[in-house]
Structure formats: C-alpha cells, structure tokens
Amino acid sequence: MKKYNFNAGPAVLPQAAIENAAKAVLDFDGMGLSLLTISHRSKEFEAVMDETVALFKELLAIPEGYRVLFLGGGASSQFYMVPFNLLEKKAGYVNTGVWAKKAMKEAKFFGEAVEVASSEDRNNTYIPKGFAVPKDLDYLHITTNNTIFGTEYHTDIDCPVPLVADMSSDILSRPVDVSKYALIYGGAQKNLAPAGVTFVIVKEDMLGKMSRPIPTMIDYRTHIKEGSMFNTPPVFPIYVMRETLRWIKSLGGVQKMYEINKAKARLLYEEIDRNPLFVGTAVKEDRSLMNICFVPAPGRENLYDEFFAFAKERGMVGIKGHRLVGGFRASTYNALPIEDVQALVTCMQDFEKKVNG
C-alpha cells in the first residue's frame, strides 16, 4: 500500500534527493567510499558545501553582507546562540506558541527578554498584529510558522529594530525578503534535509558588538571564518540539503514552490470547510500553508478514533494532531506531492459517506 507522509518532522523529502543520497551512501562521487565515511575536508565534499551555500543564496536572493552557515544542534541551539551573540540589554519576542516560548525562555539567561505580543489568549490560533515594538530592543524575534497550532506569517513584517526569525518549518516555501531580517535560522528536517543540520542566515555587521565574551563554538564569527567547518559539519544532511535545493531550482525556484504550496493548502482547507465532520482550528487569514490543523466538528468528537483508524487503513501517516491541540494535523511541506493531499481529501470524503450511510 502506498504511504502518504504527513509527518510534522522529520518530514517528507523529494524522491530524487532520497535516491541520490542512497547512491552516495554506497559510493560518493565515484570515490569508492561511502558519503558516511568521507573526510569533510575532501575537495569532493567542499564542492558540496560550496554549492549548497550558493543555491541557498540564489534561491532566497540573499543580499550582499549576509553569511550562510550550516551548523549542528538543531533550531533549539539557536534559541541560546541568538541572544548570546545579539542580546546586550533587551530583546522582544512574539509569543505564537511552544517554540517561540522556548526561544524566549533561553534569551532570559543573557538579558531582559520581553513578550511584546502573544496569541496565547486564544490558544495560539492567530498571528498577533498591530502591536507596538519598543524602540530600545536589541532585536525582535518571531517564529514565522507554528507547526503545533497551524498558523503562519504570510508576509515579511516591517520592524523598527533588527528582526530575527525562526523559519524552521517554512523556509523556501514562499518568497522572503531577506533584507528585512538581521538573522534567520531553522532546523532542516521540515523542508530541507534529515535532522542534523541547522541553517543560519546572518547579517554580518550585526556581530561583534557584545560586551560579554562569547565561547568559541557559540560565536557565529567562528563559523563564518571557517566556512561552517570549524568542527566536523553534518556531512550527510548537508548533502541531502544540496539535492533538495537542486530539486527546488529544477521546479522553477521558490516562487513556483509557493504557488504549488498554495494550491495544496487550498485543496485541503476547502475540504475541511466543506466537510460537516471537521473544522479548522486556526483563523482563516493566518492559516499555515505547511501545517494544516483540524478537529472533529462540535458534537462529532466521538469520531476521532474512527477517522484516525480509517485514514490509517488508507495509508495516511503522521496526521495525529499535537497533544496541545488534539485532532488532526497534515503537514504539507514542499516535497509533499499535491496528489497526496488529494488522497487525504478523498479519504475525508469517503469517511463522510461512511458515517452518513
């Protein structure tokens, strides 16, 4: 039976990237060695690193003055690396859910971290808007896509202070004006690669201004100077990332990816809104294109287990909602084909027919 992978992460990857990575595990670049065993200092892997950086810059139209880094530790390590490098006195955080709160918690070790806006009052079902940003902030931090609650920023906000964004789950899913950000970071295991590599896009002139000493491994300047090779980088995930970036470019780039993602999300949201058995959880204007959350309609809560079993029999994988939200979540990341979304829609329609007899 065909499986339809809606996991929130580690997530679906392009088939071409998986196949090329599988071949490289057996023999990388005709070296007679596995990708898993080569030296990261070899000219063959240095070429992979250089191309991956170049593709990142090309696909996101990253301006001059920014550096692209590939580090270990996941996005959670950036929750403390960002304030260690950028927080001198006070930083602001927009609380849109679990990951934003975790980032703010870490920042408080290094200075004052204030919550400038929050959607917690309505269980994080919307993106806060129209709030005042204090001018004395060292930076404002946002989480552009909220995997647990299914909300997303659909435009790059204008900010009077340096803007930092966790884009773990929507990077390269839509065009981004990188010039509006001082730093963008994220784990790769949603839209780019297997878990193990973290991307950082940082405006270089933001660095080197802290009065505190910064440990070598935590200092972004260390990794800029060494081209992300101060210590052994995560070779395999970076290789897969290169293959994924090649795939996005072959489709027509980020703008084309955005059009595909909008079509996938529209298909599923229209079914959620039409089907009397289900209801979406996020306000419509802030619905995520990447993580589509829905629950049984009021009065139909008893159907949860039945639909989950029904969908599993149809090959749907990873649609269980997060425990904080319940219900269902379909993650429709870049590499998920629209045909898989259609399969889920058909599954929901067939379930409706079954329930209604």
Instruction: Please give the alpha-carbon distance between the first and last residues.
Output: 26 Å
Can you summarize the main beta sheet?
7 strands, mixed
Radius of gyration: 21 Å
Counting DSSP E segments of at least 2 residues, the number of strands comes to 14
- Strand arrangement within the widest β-sheet reads 2-10-9-8-5-3-4
**Mean pLDDT, as a whole number?**
97
CATH class of the largest domain: Alpha Beta
Q: What's the name of the CATH homologous superfamily of the largest domain?
A: Type I PLP-dependent aspartate aminotransferase-like (Major domain)
Kindly report the CATH topology of the largest domain.
Aspartate Aminotransferase, domain 2
Number of domains: 2
Low-confidence stretches: none
Overall SS class: alpha/beta
Order of helices and strands: EHHEHEHEEEEEEEHHHEEHEEH
The tally of helices reads: 9
Approximate strand percentage: 15-25%
Overview of this structure, please?
The chain has 357 residues and is of the alpha/beta class. The protein folds into 2 domains: 15-251, Type I PLP-dependent aspartate aminotransferase-like (Major domain) (Aspartate Aminotransferase, domain 2); 253-356, Aspartate Aminotransferase, domain 1, CATH 3.90.1150. Helices cover 35% and strands 17% of the residues. The chain has helices at 15-26, 43-59, 74-86, 98-107, 220-225, 235-251, 254-274, 304-313, 338-356; strands spanning 4-5, 66-71, 90-95, 112-118, 140-143, 145-146, 151-152, 163-166, 183-187, 198-203, 278-280, 291-296, 316-317, 328-331. The strands form 4 sheets. A 7-stranded mixed beta sheet has the order 2-10-9-8-5-3-4, sandwiched between helices. A 3-stranded antiparallel beta sheet has the order 11-12-14, with helices on one face. The chain is globular, with a radius of gyration of 21 Å. The protein starts with a strand and ends with a helix. The mean pLDDT is 97.
